[in-house]
Each structure stands twice: as structure tokens, then as C-alpha cells.
């Protein structure tokens, strides 16, 4: 059976290639093609001999080459590209490429599905099927990099905010981020990486102990206990007040500002009173609030509030001197909310 090479360290790669009969220096060349030039096939590695390529193809596989793009959606403004990627075992996840003024970012998934059951999210509709490996997380970045490389561009930011709860797959997520930070891969700064959690406190604490300047985002979405539990059942085990405290420890240790994500759902959590509650909890914290007008999730019956309501909410936060912005709407015309594309695809397969 062929062995998978993608995501191995240089030393692991050297060992496998030497065992297959290749010279040791070939490993550094293959490594560079894979992780700096974002090539996804052995026969594109132009400084390898035909004989060496034949050995590689006979003995090894490369995950990005085996990924199937089941669906692809590009927003009308061409700034957002979302793909549904199928892994060799038949499981699929969503990955999104976004073009900003400052470069390209990729929003990756960390699990197939999710167990957290957030009421507004399509990713949790059928629970968590499995964790992704570090290589599968990396492959989501490199599949886009391989598309950009022809234009002389590459992904410069990663956000772990797709399907899954990253803190419940901590080692693989951190392994992937540390890999991207290496000088002989993308050499991506930790400051360009964001992990978004629904509030798994042990995960926040582990991240704090690592002491890396990774951006931490917390999905809050309500600052009233009952409503938060209704929207995010994780609140029962990890009440948001404790989550904010854990995030404060993160700020103290890393100096990084924490971002609180707040999806505004019409008639649920978008009133001025809800904004006052939120302000009470975040006042004087080294934090910013990212307000996200909800993407309608037809399966859940959630609607987006009007512009006026969003502005009124923002004003309350600003009155309390809380650094808050309304997220620029990217990819509104595609199934932009996490898990929607995968859920729709699954539904179509059943029909
Ligand atoms: S919002 Fe995130 S944590 Fe909640 S169910 Fe969806 S993927 Fe899971």
C-alpha cells in the first residue's frame, strides 16, 4: 500500500524517501515543491529525474492531489470562493478562500461535522463524524495555494472557523498551525492565524500555556445565560462568564486582543437591551466585538435583522467605548454560513 507523504516533517520525509531508494537530498527538494511552491503532483517537481518521479509515484501519495472538489461556489464579487472537499475516506468539509485588500485568507474546518449543536449552525446538523488530521487541515490551505501559485500569490492568513470545534481537536489544529509557521513552509506569522472557539475552557487554557501570539476568537452570540444556552448548548458546561475570564487570562499571557463573535439573529439577540448586557460583560476588556448579521439558515428558521437594528446595536456598544465592527459581508450570495454547502449537498444526495 502506498504511504501518504503530505504533512510529514522533513526528517520523516527523508527517512521514507531514503528507504524507497532515493538520495537524502531529494527530500528537501520534494519538501520545497510541496510547501513553498504548492505543487500537488510528483510529475510537476521539475528538478527530479524521471526515474525518481516513478519511484515516488509507485510508493507514495499526496493528499491534496487526492482531494475531490465536490462543489464550488464563487461569489458574484469574486472575493469569496467556497469549496466542498472530499477526503479519500469519503468524508467532506467546507473550506473558504477570501480575497482581502491585504491578501488571501483561508477559513478551514477542523472536524467533519460538529457535536456542539449551536442552534444557528448547519455544521452541527448531523453531529461530529471525526476529527481531521493536521495534514487534512493543511491540505485545505494548499489546495487553494496551488490555484493561486500561477498568479504568483499565496495564502497569508488562516482562520480555523469552519466546521468543527478546534479546541476538541487541539493537537491536530496546533500541529497544522505550527507547520505553516515553519521557515521552510509558508513561514506564516502566528499573528496571521486565528482560532475560533465556542468556549471550550480547557482548550483556551492549553492555548494560553503555549504562549504563541495566535489570535483567539470566541463565539459568544448572547450575553444572557438562558438565551446563550438556547443558542449554544456548550454554555451549560462552560458558562460564558467563565469563558470571558479564561479569555482574559489569554490576553494577560499573550498580549493579544480577543475577538468576540456575535451573530445578530432577528428577534433573538439583537435588541438594545441585549447590546447593553454584552457591553456590561466586555467593558474595560482588551477585546473587540465582531457583529455578524445572521446568514439565514433555512433549516433553523433564523433571519437576518434589518440594517437599522444592526446599527442601533453597534451604537450601544460604541457608547460604552467597546471596539466593535460589523463584519463586511463576503460571499452573501453563496451558501456562506458554515456547513450550509455540505448540508445542501447531503440533502441533494438523498433526494
Ligand atoms: S458554530 Fe462552530 S461550534 Fe457551533 S455547531 Fe457550528 S461548527 Fe460547531
Task: Please provide a written account of the structure.
- The chain has helices spanning 10-19, 25-35, 50-59, 63-66, 134-148, 170-181, 201-210, 225-231, 240-254, 272-282, 307-319, 340-350, and strands at residues 3-4, 60-61, 68-74, 80-86, 92-100, 103-108, 111-113, 128-131, 155-160, 193-197, 215-219, 258-264, 287-293, 323-326.
- The chain has 351 residues and is of the alpha/beta class.
- It folds into 2 domains: 3-64, Orthogonal Bundle (DNA polymerase, domain 1), CATH 1.10.150; 68-350, TIM Barrel, CATH 3.20.20.70.
- Residues 114, 116-118, 121, 123-124, 163-165, 198, 219, 338 line the site of iron/sulfur cluster (SF4).
- Its EC number is 2.1.1.192.
- [4Fe-4S] cluster binds at residues 114, 118, 121.
- InterPro entries: Aldolase_TIM, Methyltransferase_A, RlmN_N, RNA_MTrfase_RlmN, rRNA_lsu_MTrfase_RlmN/Cfr, rSAM, rSAM_sf.
- Its cofactor is [4Fe-4S] cluster.
List keywords for this structure.
single chain; 351 residues; alpha/beta; TIM Barrel; 2 domains; ten-stranded mixed beta sheet; two-stranded parallel sheet; 21% strand; binds iron/sulfur cluster; RlmN_N; 4 iron, 4 sulfur cluster binding; iron; S-adenosyl-L-methionine; transferase
Please specify the SSE layout and strand pairing:
Elements (H helix, E strand, L loop, with lengths): L2 E2 L5 H10 L5 H11 L14 H10 E2 L1 H4 L1 E7 L5 E7 L5 E9 L2 E6 L2 E3 L14 E4 L2 H15 L6 E6 L9 H12 L11 E5 L3 H10 L4 E5 L5 H7 L8 H15 L3 E7 L7 H11 L4 E7 L13 H13 L3 E4 L13 H11 L1
Parallel strand pairs: 1-2, 6-9, 9-10, 10-11, 11-12, 12-13, 13-14
Antiparallel strand pairs: 3-4, 4-5, 5-6, 7-8
The structure holds iron/sulfur cluster (SF4).
Amino acid at each position: 500500500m502506498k504511504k501518504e507523504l503530505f504533512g510529514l516533517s522533513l526528517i520523516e520525509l527523508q527517512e521514507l524517501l531514503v528507504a524507497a531508494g532515493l538520495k537524502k537530498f531529494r527530500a528537501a527538494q520534494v519538501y520545497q515543491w510541496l510547501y513553498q511552491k504548492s505543487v500537488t503532483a510528483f510529475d510537476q517537481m521539475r528538478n527530479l529525474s524521471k526515474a525518481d518521479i516513478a519511484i515516488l509515484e509507485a510508493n507514495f501519495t499526496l493528499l491534496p492531489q487526492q482531494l475531490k472538489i465536490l462543489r464550488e461556489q464563487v461569489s458574484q464579487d469574486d472575493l469569496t470562493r467556497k469549496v466542498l472537499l472530499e477526503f479519500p475516506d469519503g468524508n467532506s468539509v467546507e473550506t473558504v478562500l477570501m480575497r482581502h485588500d491585504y491578501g488571501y485568507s483561508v477559513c478551514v474546518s477542523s472536524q467533519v461535522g460538529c457535536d456542539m449543536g449551536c442552534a444557528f449552525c448547519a455544521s452541527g446538523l448531523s453531529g461530529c463524524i471525526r476529527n481531521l488530521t493536521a495534514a487534512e487541515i493543511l491540505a485545505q490551505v494548499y489546495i487553494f495555494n496551488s490555484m493561486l501559485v500561477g498568479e504568483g500569490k499565496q495564502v497569508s492568513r488562516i482562520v480555523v472557523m469552519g466546521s468543527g470545534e478546534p479546541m476538541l481537536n487541539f493537537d491536530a489544529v496546533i500541529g497544522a498551525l505550527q507547520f505553516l509557521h515553519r521557515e521552510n513552509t509558508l513561514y506564516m506569522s502566528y499573528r496571521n492565524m486565528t482560532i475560533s472557539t465556542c468556549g471550550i475552557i480547557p482548550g483556551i487554557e492549553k492555548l494560553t500555556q503555549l504562549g504563541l501570539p495566535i489570535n483567539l476568537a470566541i463565539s459568544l452570540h448572547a450575553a444572557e445565560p438562558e438565551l446563550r444556552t438556547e443558542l449554544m448548548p456548550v454554555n451549560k458546561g462552560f458558562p460564558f462568564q467563565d469563558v470571558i475570564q479564561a479569555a482574559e487570562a489569554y490576553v494577560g499571557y499573550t498580549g493579544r486582543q480577543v475577538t468576540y463573535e456575535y451573530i445578530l439573529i432577528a428577534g433573538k439577540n439583537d435588541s438594545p437591551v441585549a447590546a447593553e448586557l454584552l457591553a456590561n460583560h466586555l467593558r474595560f476588556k482588551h477585546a473587540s466585538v465582531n457583529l455578524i448579521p445572521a446568514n439565514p439558515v433555512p433549516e433553523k428558521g433564523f433571519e437576518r435583522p434589518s440594517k437599522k437594528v444592526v446599527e442601533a446595536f453597534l451604537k450601544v456598544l460604541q457608547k460604552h467605548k467597546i471596539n466593535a465592527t460589523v463584519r463586511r459581508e463576503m460571499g452573501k450570495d453563496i451558501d456562506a454560513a458554515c456547513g450550509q454547502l455540505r448540508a445542501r449537498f447531503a440533502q441533494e444526495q438523498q433526494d
